[in-house]
TrEMBL record:
Gene3D superfamilies: Insect odorant-binding protein A10/Ejaculatory bulb-specific protein 3. This is Chemosensory protein. It holds the Pfam family OS-D. Residues 1-19 form the signal peptide. It comes from the Eukaryota. Keywords: Signal. The keyword Signal applies.
């Protein structure tokens, strides 16, 4: 039984690595990133990926991705630092649009 559990988590980790590698390929395609940014910021047409990102952003930014799948967490962990480093202005616009400010 322990071997099956270990195998399951190993496969899950490999899937996450593949998902992160896949997203890294997309992030190297500047026109594609720009297209997704236009979608996310309601400045252009959205494809399936852009719609999914728009759907997940509030969960990622406001709920620390608590309801995300492990794959979505891996993608968020790749995407957020990339945006902060390569698109800081757009990242601030995304935060303003999707992050709910809590006042106490």
């Amino acid at each position: 039984m322990k071997i099956k559990i270990l195998l399951f988590f190993t496969i899950l980790a490999l899937i996450n690595v593949k998902a992160q590698n896949d997203i890294s390929k997309f992030l190297m395609d500047r026109p594609y990133v720009q297209k997704q940014l236009h979608c996310i910021l309601d400045r252009g047409h959205c494809d399936v990926i852009g719609k999914k990102i728009k759907e997940l952003l509030p969960e990622v930014l406001n709920n620390h991705c608590n309801r995300c799948t492990s794959r979505q967490v891996g993608i968020a962990n790749t995407l957020i630092p990339f945006m902060q480093q390569n698109y800081p202005y757009e990242w601030q616009l995304i935060l303003r649009r999707y992050k709910i400010m809590k006042y106490y």
